[in-house]
Structure formats: C-alpha cells, structure tokens
Design goal:
Layout: E1 2-3, H1 13-25, E2 29-33, H2 40-55, E3 59-63, E4 94-98, E5 116-121, E6 127-128, E7 132-134, H3 141-154, H4 162-175, H5 186-199, H6 208-217, H7 221-232, E8 235-237, E9 242-247, H8 251-254, H9 267-270, E10 277-283, E11 290-297, H10 303-307, E12 313-314, E13 318-324, H11 328-349
Parallel strand pairs: 1-6, 2-3, 2-4, 4-5, 5-7, 9-10
Antiparallel strand pairs: 8-9, 10-11, 11-13, 12-13
Helix pairs in contact: 1-3, 2-3, 2-4, 3-4, 4-5, 4-6
Length: 352
C-alpha cells in the first residue's frame, strides 16, 4: 500500500458506523463514488451502503462516470441510477469512495479525490488518498460493507434486509469468481452463509443461484461475439506461460459491439492450460494512445507488483494498469517485457 499522505487516519467498521450516525444526525447528504468500468463489487457494495444509509433515515446516492453494464443492471432498484451527472457533487455534503484503489480509478472525476472524506476498499496495492477503512485480506469490499451492516443489526438500528444481502452477496460473488478464486477465505464463506440465510427468507427475490447465474453464467449474444474476437487475437508467449489478447479502440464499433461486451476478456487468456499469467490489453476509445491492462495470475506470481511499475495496482493475482503506447503491439511489448523475466524466474524455481 502506498500513501499520498501518511497523515490519513485508518478507521474500522465501528468508527465508520459512528460517522454514518453523525452524518445522519447532521442531515448530511452522502455521495458514494464507484470506480470507472464498474464491476459487481463496487456496484453491489455502493448500493448496499446507500440502502443502509437510507434505512437509517439519511439520503445517499451512488455515482460513476460509467453506467452499470447490462449484466449488472439487476442490482439497481427501479428508482436507482448510477451514471454521474455534471456537478452533482454540489448537491451533497460529503463524498465517500467505494472499492476505489486510487484516485485515477475515478476517471474524469479524479479532481474530486481531494474532497473525499472516506475511502472503503480492500485492495492491497492501493494509493491512500483520504481517511480509509481498508482490509486487504477481505475478498471484496462487500465484506467490509457487511461488517457495517452487521454492526447496525446488532444494535437494532436496522432490521435484516434481503435487498442489502443480495447486493452484498453479488459483490462478494463477483470478486471471488463465484467463490472460485484464491482470495476466498473461511470468513468469506461465513459471511456468504449469513447473507444467504436472510436472502432465503424472502422467496419473492432472487436466490443465490439466480444471482450467480446472472453474474457468471449468463452472456448476451454480443458478449459471445466479443469473446470470439478476443479468441482470434490470442497470443501465447514465454514458452506457453503467458497469454494475452489486445483489442483496439475501433474494434468494438466495427463489429457493432460496446466496450462492456469485452468486459471479461482477461478470463480467456488466463483459462488456457499451462498459462501462468493472462493479460487483456484494451485501447482506450476516449483517451487516444492509452491502453488498459488487466492481469490475472494462476500461480503465486504477483501481478500487482509488476503492474505497479506502470502506476497500476490491485491484488496479488488480479491487477490492472493504464499505460501509454503507440499501438496494440507496442503496448503488448511493454507489458511482456515486464512480465517475462518474472515468469522465467518463477518457472526456474518451480519446474513442472
């Protein structure tokens, strides 16, 4: 973890709950910011916290520069909106960020990072830019929100709420790959069990199986077309240990697709047998000459440390960065050059 200012204080769940109660007593309107290209964890966690705040009598909204992708729209209630509108922060008294590992993850809302009064996050390699509630051993930010929810349950400030539980279950399921990733811990399962117990008391809502299907087992025709394009662009290097695919800024539009359709592309190279690290390289449509890198490790290679050389970060086995490059090949060459010696060293120390 790196810090922009080491004077920022670290809070725990109890302190966050106390802040929430003080905010509500002072009738503070709270804005919850998600990271760009929002995933299930940032959306589920933010809307769960919004609902907690609302049930306690306060007013909160969630916002992001990117709208929720189609497969995550089910997490939003009918009256909810995620998309940021110009100057909406002026309508609020406080700004918190949810699952945002660094100010750059706010995208064009980066200037608002100096106004953030609390960041709730679980990324080990992150840039601290405000007072924070952080637990890098948590599988998802949803686990941290769960502890806030549990604290208010224990003092009877709120009652068990199936909607909050569905949102948090989705957040955790999303970041653990339906509890398949190495970040899944015994506590993760304990939290999930508690959430499921409340969810199952409400037969009218979606059960955990339905949530898992929406998150991991349901794809649109457009997403399948995007997967086909990614597979066609797969490259395998480092003697079969590194696989990557690069998507240009113009490719989605050329095929009538959106950027969201390529959201899970990193899972394709990482799924190849024998591959230790999978990379997705995607050119930015809005910021010419920049490429978003997503890395996933199938072993103990620390992709976050490698990508930190490019100003990126994340988790040991799942991280991202944004780099400047002339084109797809140039971007690939830069990233491969960083990963190649680490992979070679790992293979030498861990022969198959």
């Amino acid at each position: 973890m790196t810090a922009k200012n080491t004077s920022f204080s670290q809070l725990n769940a109890s302190a966050v709950c106390a802040s929430i109660e003080q905010y509500i007593a002072g009738k503070k309107r709270l804005l919850l910011l998600c990271h760009v290209n929002p995933d299930g964890d940032t959306i589920g966690s933010a809307f769960a916290l919004q609902r907690i705040y609302t049930l306690l009598g306060g007013y909160a909204r969630c916002a992001c520069t990117s709208d929720a992708p189609g497969y995550l729209q089910f997490l939003l209630q009918e009256q909810d909106s995620l998309l940021y509108t110009p100057n909406m922060e002026k309508q609020f008294d406080a700004i918190w960020t949810i699952d945002v590992a660094s100010p750059t993850q706010l995208g064009r809302l980066f200037p608002l990072s100096d106004q953030v009064s609390l960041s709730i996050d679980h990324h080990e390699n992150c840039t601290v830019f405000s007072p924070y509630y952080l637990n890098p051993t948590a599988s998802a930010t949803g686990e941290l929100i769960f502890h806030i929810y549990s604290a208010f349950l224990k003092n009877s400030k709120i009652q068990p709420d199936p909607i909050i539980c569905r949102l948090l279950y989705a957040a955790i399921s999303s970041d653990t790959g339906s509890f398949q990733y190495s970040n899944t811990t015994p506590e993760t399962f304990q939290i999930a069990a508690s959430l499921v117990a409340t969810i199952q008391r409400d037969p009218e809502g979606e059960d955990p199986a339905a949530i898992a299907h929406r998150l991991h087992g349901c794809r649109t025709i457009q997403e399948l077309q995007a997967q086909k394009l990614v597979i066609e662009r797969l490259r395998i290097v480092c003697e079969g240990r590194l696989a990557y695919a690069c998507v240009s800024a113009t490719l989605p539009e050329e095929h009538g697709l959106s950027d969201f359709d390529f959201g899970g592309m990193v899972d394709i190279p990482r799924s190849i047998s024998g591959v230790l690290v999978g990379l997705a390289i995607k050119e930015s449509k809005s910021d010419s000459g920049t490429f978003k890198i997503s890395a996933r490790s199938n072993c103990d290679i620390d992709v976050a440390t490698i990508l930190s050389k490019f100003g990126g970060g994340g988790h040991k086995r799942a991280a991202g960065a944004t780099i400047p490059a002339k084109n797809c090949q140039d971007a690939a060459d830069k990233v491969i050059a960083a990963f190649s010696p680490v992979i070679q060293s790992y293979v030498k120390e861990n022969p198959v």
